[in-house]
Amino acid sequence: MAFVDGVWVKGTLPAGVDLKRCDVFLDRRGWLVEWLDETKLGTLNVRSVYTSIAYPGQERAGHYHLKRTEYWMVIGGEAEVELFDLREDSPTFEAHCTFCMGDVCPARLIIPPRVAHVFRALGVAEARLLVCATECYNPDDNVPYDFSGWPRRTA
Hints:
Helix content is 5%, strand content 54%. The chain is mainly β. It has a single domain (2-24, 32-136), classed as Jelly Rolls.
């Protein structure tokens, strides 16, 4: 395990993936987390924002994108995230990692194209994922990916 910008990561984080724990500003009224700032918004060129929810014990995603970059934030609950690098020209080709994000570890994640990704809701609550994407939804850009066995393989 390695400690990457405030998040414990099991395995190797694929090159170009940006993972960073976010600061929580807490007072008697509640808390605030700044997920996006001008340094990331300007480089992402966000064209779509949506929410994906995984029920307790369930997983969502299980695919990769050919063109689209995604910016993930778990805004409620806890999620285990799994990534796999499918880019043959990447210095981390076939790198695989898992880590947790959510209420206990608020973090933001940027996933480049051709990095397969899945998230699973941990515990008894649903995991709520807020996604900002560089492309609008296009079914031709979503390529299914089977995270169930090794070696990893496309569906």
